[in-house]
Amino acid sequence: MTKSLFDSFEEVSSKQWKQKIQFDLKGADYNEALIFKTLEGIDIKPFYNQEDLDGITNPVSHPSTWDNSIRIEATGTSSANQKAIKAIDKGAESLFFVIKDENVDPEGLLHNIPKDTSIFIETKFLSSSYVQKLNTIAQTNRNDIYVLTDIINNLAATGNWFKNLKEDHHNIEEITKYDSLKSVMSIDISLYQNSGATMVQQLAYSLAHANEYLNFFSNNDFNPFKKTKPIFKVSIGGNYFFEIAKLRAIRLLWSTLAAEYEVKEDCHILAYPSHRNKTILDYNVNMLRTTTECMSAILGGANTIYNIAYDDIYNLENDFGTRISLNQLLILKNESYMDLVSNPASGSYYIESLTDQLAEKGLSLFKNIEEGGGFLKQLKSGIIQKKIKESANKEQELFDNEKIILTGSNKYKNQEEVIPAFQKNVFQSKNVRKTLLEPVLKSRLSELIEKKV
After folding, report:
1. How many Å apart are CA 349 and CA 331, to the nearest integer?
2. From the CB of residue 193, how many other CB atoms can be counted at a distance below 10 Å?
3. What's the pLDDT score for residue 362?
C-alpha cells in the first residue's frame, strides 16, 4: 500500500507556526501587523489550523442543494404571471412574489406554474383571507407555497403594526391554521443588515425576533413551529467568509433555541444580495458584488437564493437586468457546479472558527436582550435602533476613510463617470408620518459620495 504523503511530514503546532511568523517579521509586532480587528469584535489571525477546532463540537446542517429563484414584484396579476412563466423557461427553479395589494388574484398569479416549482409569497399587507386563497391553491395544485408573514419586521421597518397589535396577532393566529402551506411564518433579518447592523447584531436580533413568536405561540393551543420550519430571510453583504459563517451560525442558533421550545430544529434560509454596498457609481461592478454574495449564500447553506439586478437600486425591473441576475445563478450552479459538494465549508478551520465565534457572540447578545425585556421592548424603547445606528456610523467612518473599499465609489473612481438616469428614488427621503416607534432605516454606504457627483 502506498504510504500517505502526509506521513512524510511532522505535525506543526499553532505555537510553532506563530514562532516562525514572528521570526520572519524581524521585530514587527505580531498583533499590530497581522491581527485584523473586525466590527464584530472578532480578531482575524493570519493562519488557522486543527487546534482552532478544539472545543467546537456542534455540527452545522447543510441542505443537499439549493434552488435559484427570481424576485417578481406583482403589481398586476397577468403581467406577474407572464414574468413568472418566462423566468421558469429561462431556468428559475422557484419564484418569489412580492404582492403590494389584494387586487392581485392568487389563482391568476399562479396559473400554469409547474407543480415542481416552489413559490414564496410576501405580501405588503396582512390578510388571513388572502392566505386562505393561497392555501386552497396549495391543496388543489399541490405546489409548495411558502408565505412570509412577519408582523415584527413590519413594525421595525415602518414604525407601525399593519393595523394594531391586537388585530395583527389575531391575523397571524388565523394564518397559521392553514395546513396546506409549507410555511407561514418568517423572520426577516435583512432589514438589520441593510441598515448597518454588525453580523453579531443580526444574529442576536434574528434570535430575539424569533423568540417573540415562539413565546406568543407557546401560550396558544396551536403552535405552527411544531409543524413547519420558519423562513429566515437574509441579506448577504460583501464580507465573503463572514457571510458564509453567518448563515451557518443562524442554523446553529435556531436549532439551539428551537430545542428549548421543542419545535422543529431546522429552518429554511432564503438569501439575497444586500443593497448596502451597491452603488450608482461604476454600477457594473455591482455584478461582481452580487456574484460573490450569491456564492457566500451557496457555501453558507441557503436553501433558496434570488439575485438582485446590477441596476436594482436605481432602475425599475427590466428584461436585461433580470436576465443577467438569473444567469449569474445559473452559471454558479450549472457551470461552476457549486451544488455538487455537500456542506463545502465543513472542516475549514477558518470558517468553522468564525461560525463558532459569531454564534457565541450572537447568543451572548441575545441573552442580554432577553434580560432587558426582550426584542419588542427594546425596539419600542429605541435601544435596537440606537445600537444599529452606532454600528452603521462606525462602518460609514471606515468607508469614508477608505478602510472599506467599494471600487469605483470611494476608490479608483472613474473621472468621466456618467450618472445613469434614475427610475427609482435612489436617496433616502423624509416621509413624515405618525409612528408608534422610530423605524429602522436602510442606508447605503456610498450615498454621500453619490450626492456630490
Report:
1. 28
2. 24
3. 98
